[in-house]
Structures are given as structure tokens and as C-alpha cells.
């Protein structure tokens, strides 16, 4: 097992409205190298968030890597407009849970944990989701 | 000639959220050029704009304003309030104005005050719409003039331009209706010709006060200092500091894209922005650019009425009922609708199961030992909502579901009275950009001499 829980390498995992029609989630990493290694393989992409949240890819508006904060941001179309009948989270502040179970494979960690890790890294880069799906 | 440092004191993230007296006092000692605060947000949802009330409490807002007015009077500097009363419509502005006048009366203050409204008439929106000058802010949907006419209230977010007149007339207090959040913090600096990109970026951080510091807080004071080619941030509470990371990270907060932040008249471009830590728990920011947009647009926010709500709250501890809860609730909904002929909404929020994330809940199969249930009815009148909610509650309380062995009652009702009328329900129905020829025209400035 050379994946690590996202909660181990991230300092902040949160969700919030970005206006009443959008939900935005932020993941901020503790260190730059973990962040950069996952950015390099584009680990966080629209398809990953669509799968995590069980929504069509078309409802994932944007995934942005923000280097100054070692952060990834994903903005999605809210399933219900904030405060409309049926909405369950007016501020959108408790929609981050699907990310808490995610396991990731930053290159750094692989290097540290197993000495011959090139193959593992290559696999992650070819298809990060196959071995590290959100429900794994 | 190089511009002098321009200091902006931001006491709290939202007017009424409070701040330690000591932090504020330290801020005043540093002789700021302006005290500014943001009072608004759409985060609390559509109700507050619809009903015309604030989501903060009057005593809390009054307490914060007492300190701010005292500081502004002492230093003879402007005190600027953005998005008064939370939603920034006339009713919200009037509510805040009454608090300011009350303080002036109690303290014996005499000062000049500008009040800038941000309400937009439906007629004006529809007229602009017909000229093709209104477009939805994706993912808000396209709407028709007919939909606009259903709005109970529409406000526009003002840019900096309407504030210039108030500043020219030396107003001690500038009370703004709905406002682009950074504006109260940067209007005086922009009038003096400071760089727009840096000023607005600083305003974006200051409008959340110490939320951008570490550890973050929505109720503590910070100071922003604008220079010609950078701005600096410092906490006014020694328990917090601005770090490179906390300052950079704040750019992500509640935004769609941290590299491009749109506002009235243009957008902030952060692609070249640099964040650095300074000694003494301060941070410096450079490189942010403002890109003007043509034509000038303002953001509209409007809500419409969508009925009346009544709720009832109960717990469920019986494992047999917990095991079959979804089908029981479906049956209750059907039975009540049949018995009453009710065509409105009956909603169940099952806490412990999927009340928070609904269909997006990834852990669908967990079985808790108890559930929290909120029964919710939305109807055309409060009376009807009360009636149907009462019927939902009583039907569920005594429903004989398959396998039931607890035959005395199905619900641990939390309160007597068991049902709570919640009043009007509103929904956002306008969230659009409107092109304007003149950024001041929508926002009339009225100036008053306030006396005790």
C-alpha cells in the first residue's frame, strides 16, 4: 500500500458557496512537493470530482491549481440554489466529506516508502483513478 | 512624488460579528486613514433580501458601530460601511441608519453622513433586458422579463464611483447599500490615485478581516497598508499573524477562480501576484493587476417569494423504523397529500442518513442508532403550511409501518409546541450582470447633517 490519505498531506479541505449558484472546494497541501507532484500528473481533474460527487462532468465548472497556496480548487454547479426549497446546506460549508476518504499517491511519498517506486509513480500518472478511486 | 502609505482599519469580517476592544484600540493608535467594514453577504441565503431584515442582531451591530464611530470622530477620518444590513436594500440601509443616528444621539456626535442606495427597479432591469444588456451569471439560468417582475426586491452591487461624491463632500460616515465587498476599504485610496489592482486585492482581503490571518478569525481587527507598488497586512492581535500561505490561501475563499476575480468595471488578475512574509507577522503582496472591462457591468441580486414554511423536529430511536425509514416517509407523504389534497412541498430531512449531502452522500449504507428528522412543509399560506405540517407530524407519529412493535408512537418530538411556523420562503431568481453607461446612475447619494 503506497497511497496515503489525502487528510495526511492536506492542511485544509473545505467547501463553501461561491455565490448562491456555485459550490467550491479547496484542498491546500502542507508542503509544496506533494502539491507539485499531484499537480504534475493532474491528479485532481474534472472527472475525479464528478466521480467523487456522483455528478455529470458537465456540472464540474473548473479545477484550478493555485501555486502560491499549494492549493487545488474545484468549483461545481450547486445541485440546488442556496436556500431554495430542498437545499440542505445554505452556506455549502459541509460538502467536503467525499474528499476526506480519498487516498493519493504523491511521488515524494512513494520515494520515501518504497525504494523501487518508479513503476508505482508511472501507474499513478497513467491512470490515477484506477488504483486510487474515491471509494477505494 | 511617491505616494504616502495609506492605512485601512478593518475591525471585523461582518459588521455585528464583533472584535476584541484591545485589537481595535491598537488599530486606532496606528492612525488609520479610514475605518471600513463589510456588512453583507449572499451566504445566509435569499430570505434576508426578501424579508428586508439583517442576519446580524441589532445590539451586536450597534456595539461594533459605537467603536467605529468613536474612532472615526476622534481621528476625523471616514467610516465606511458596505452592504448595510446584510443585503443592502433600502430597508437594510434604513435599519443601519437608525442605529447610527441612535449612537449619534446618545454620544452627542455631529457629523455629515452620506447614504447611498443600491435598489434597482424591476422596470429598469426589464428595460435593460429588452436592450440585451442583462445576462445571467453562469450557472444562474436565463430569465424572462416575466420572471424579473416576480422579484420582490433587486439590488445591484455598486462599484467605487458612487462613493467619490461622498468623499468629496467630506462625509464622516458613508453608509452604502449593496456594494462590491472590497469597495468600502479602497474607495478613499482609489480616489487618491493608488493602483487599482493592488487596492482592490487589499480590499478583498480586508473585507474578511482576520479570516485571512493565522489562526483565522471572523471577529478580530487587521490593518492593511497600501503603497505605490505593494500592500502589506498586519494583525492587530498578537495571537495572529499574516503568513505567506494564509494570505495567498485567502484568495481562494468563496471564489470560483483565484487567478481572475471579477467585479464591477473589471477584474483582478492574480497571475503575477507574489506573496511574501515580513517580520512581525506581516505579509506583503505585489503584482496584482486590474483589467478594466468594457462595457461596465454591475451584478444584480434579486429574490422572489416562494410560499410559507412550517417545520417540526423529532428524533427516531427505533431500529425497526430506522431500517425502513425511506419507504415510511414516502408513504406518509402520499397519505397526507391524498388526505388533504395538498399540492405544495412536503420535505423530510433525515439527519444521520443523508440530510446534509442528499443524493451526493457517498456513505449510503451506514446504519446509525438514531436519526434526527425535520419535517418541512412549504405552502401558499402560513395557515396551510401549519395545517399540513401538523397532519404530517400526527400521521407519522401513529403510523403502523410493517414490522412495528413500538405501538405507542414513532417520534421523539423535541418541542411543545411541536410545529414551528417559519414565515416566508424566498428563492434567488435574479443573479445577473447588467451593463450600465454610468456607474453612478443607479446609486443615488444623499448627504445629511446628523445631529444629536
Describe the structure.
The complex is a heterodimer of chains A (136) and B (452). Chain A has 136 residues and is an alpha+beta fold. Chain A has a single domain, classed as Alpha-Beta Plaits. In chain A, 33% of the residues lie in helices and 25% in strands. Chain A has 7 helices and 6 strands. A 4-stranded antiparallel beta sheet of chain A has the order 2-3-5-4. A two-stranded antiparallel sheet of chain A has the order 1-6. The longest helix of chain A is centred in the first third of the chain and has 9 residues. Chain A is elongated, with a radius of gyration of 15 Å. Chain B is α+β, with helices and mostly antiparallel strands and 452 residues long. In chain B, 30% of the residues lie in helices and 28% in strands. In chain B, strand 12 and strand 13 form a beta hairpin. At the A-B interface, strand 2, strand 3, strand 4 and strand 5 of A face helix 10, strand 16 and strand 19 of B.
In a few lines, what is going on in this structure?
With 136 residues, chain A is an alpha+beta fold. Helices cover 33% and strands 25% of the residues of chain A. Chain A contains seven helices and six strands, in the order βαββααββαβααα.
Per DSSP, what share of the residues of chain B sits in E-state strands of 2 or more residues?
25-35%
CATH architecture descriptor name of chain A: 2-Layer Sandwich
- The SSE string of chain A, one letter per element, is EHEEHHEEHEHHH
- What percentage of the residues of chain A does DSSP assign to strands (E)? 25-35%
Q: C-alpha Rg of chain A, in Å?
A: 15 Å
Shape of chain A: elongated
- Specify which chain pair forms the largest interface: A-B, 46 and 44 residues
What is the terminal separation of chain B in angstroms? 42 Å
For this entry, give a set of tags.
heterodimer; A: 136 residues; alpha+beta; Alpha-Beta Plaits; four-stranded antiparallel beta sheet; 6 strands; elongated; disordered C terminus; B: 452 residues; ten-stranded mixed beta sheet; seven-stranded antiparallel beta sheet; 13 helices; globular
Amino acid at each position: 500500500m503506497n497511497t496515503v490519505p489525502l487528510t495526511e498531506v492536506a492542511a485544509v479541505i473545505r467547501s463553501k458557496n461561491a455565490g448562491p449558484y456555485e459550490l467550491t472546494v479547496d484542498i491546500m497541501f502542507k508542503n509544496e512537493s506533494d502539491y507539485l507532484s499531484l499537480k504534475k500528473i493532474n491528479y485532481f481533474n474534472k472527472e475525479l470530482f464528478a466521480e467523487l460527487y456522483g455528478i455529470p462532468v458537465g456540472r464540474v465548472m473548473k479545477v484550478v491549481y493555485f501555486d502560491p497556496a499549494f492549493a487545488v480548487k474545484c468549483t461545481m454547479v450547486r445541485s440546488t440554489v442556496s436556500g431554495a426549497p430542498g437545499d440542505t446546506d445554505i452556506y455549502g460549508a459541509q460538502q467536503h466529506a467525499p474528499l476526506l476518504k480519498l487516498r493519493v499517491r504523491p511521488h515524494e511519498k512513494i520515494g520515501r516508502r518504497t525504494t523501487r517506486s518508479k513503476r508505482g509513480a508511472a501507474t499513478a500518472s497513467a491512470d490515477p483513478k484506477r488504483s486510487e478511486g474515491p471509494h477505494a | 512624488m511617491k505616494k504616502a502609505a495609506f492605512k485601512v482599519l478593518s475591525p471585523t469580517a461582518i459588521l455585528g460579528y464583533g472584535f476584541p476592544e484591545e485589537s481595535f484600540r491598537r488599530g486606532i493608535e496606528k492612525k488609520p486613514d479610514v475605518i471600513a467594514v463589510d456588512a453583507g453577504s449572499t451566504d445566509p441565503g435569499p430570505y434576508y433580501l426578501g424579508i428586508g431584515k439583517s442576519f446580524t442582531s441589532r445590539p451586536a451591530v450597534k456595539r461594533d458601530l459605537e467603536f467605529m464611530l468613536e474612532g472615526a470622530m476622534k481621528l476625523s477620518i471616514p467610516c465606511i460601511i458596505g452592504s448595510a444590513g446584510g443585503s443592502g436594500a433600502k430597508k437594510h440601509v434604513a435599519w443601519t441608519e437608525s442605529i447610527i443616528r441612535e449612537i449619534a444621539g446618545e454620544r452627542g456626535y455631529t457629523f455629515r453622513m452620506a447614504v447611498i442606495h443600491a435598489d434597482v427597479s424591476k422596470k429598469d432591469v426589464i428595460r435593460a433586458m429588452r436592450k440585451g444588456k442583462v445576462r445571467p451569471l453562469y450557472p444562474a439560468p436565463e430569465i424572462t422579463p416575466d420572471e424579473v417582475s416576480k422579484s420582490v426586491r433587486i439590488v445591484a452591487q455598486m462599484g467605487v464611483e458612487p462613493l467619490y461624491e461622498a468623499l468629496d463632500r467630506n462625509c464622516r460616515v458613508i453608509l452604502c447599500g449593496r456594494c462590491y465587498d472590497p469597495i468600502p476599504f479602497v474607495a478613499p485610496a482609489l480616489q487618491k490615485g493608488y493602483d487599482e489592482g493592488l487596492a482592490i486585492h487589499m480590499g478583498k482581503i480586508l473585507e474578511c478581516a482576520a479570516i485571512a490571518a493565522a489562526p483565522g478569525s471572523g471577529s478580530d481587527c487587521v490593518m492593511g497598508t497600501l503603497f505605490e507598488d505593494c500592500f502589506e497586512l498586519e494583525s492587530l492581535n498578537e495571537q495572529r499573524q499574516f503568513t505567506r500561505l494564509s494570505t495567498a490561501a485567502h484568495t481562494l475563499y468563496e471564489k470560483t477562480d483565484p487567478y481572475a476575480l471579477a467585479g464591477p468595471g473589471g477584474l483582478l488578475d492574480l497571475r503575477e501576484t507574489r506573496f511574501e512574509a515580513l517580520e512581525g507577522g506581516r505579509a506583503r503582496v505585489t503584482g496584482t493587476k486590474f483589467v478594466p472591462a468594457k462595457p461596465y457591468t454591475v451584478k444584480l441580486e434579486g429574490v422572489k417569494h416562494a410560499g410559507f414554511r412550517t417545520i417540526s423536529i423529532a428524533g427516531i430511536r427505533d431500529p425497526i423504523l430506522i431500517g425502513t425509514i425511506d419507504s415510511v416517509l414516502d408513504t406518509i407523504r402520499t397519505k397526507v397529500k391524498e388526505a388533504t389534497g395538498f399540492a405544495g412541498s412536503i420535505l423530510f430531512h433525515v439527519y444521520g442518513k443523508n440530510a446534509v449531502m442528499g443524493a451526493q452522500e457517498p456513505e449510503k449504507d451506514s446504519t446509525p442508532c438514531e436519526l434526527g428528522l425535520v419535517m418541512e412543509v412549504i405552502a401558499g399560506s402560513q395557515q396551510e403550511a401549519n395545517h399540513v405540517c401538523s397532519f404530517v407530524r400526527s400521521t407519522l407519529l401513529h403510523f403502523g409501518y410493517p414490522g412495528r412493535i413500538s405501538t405507542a408512537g414513532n417520534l421523539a418530538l423535541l418541542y411543545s409546541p411541536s410545529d414551528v411556523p417559519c414565515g416566508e420562503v424566498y428563492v434567488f431568481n435574479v443573479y445577473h450582470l447588467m451593463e450600465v453607461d454610468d456607474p453612478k446612475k443607479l446609486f443615488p447619494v444623499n448627504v445629511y447633517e446628523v445631529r444629536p
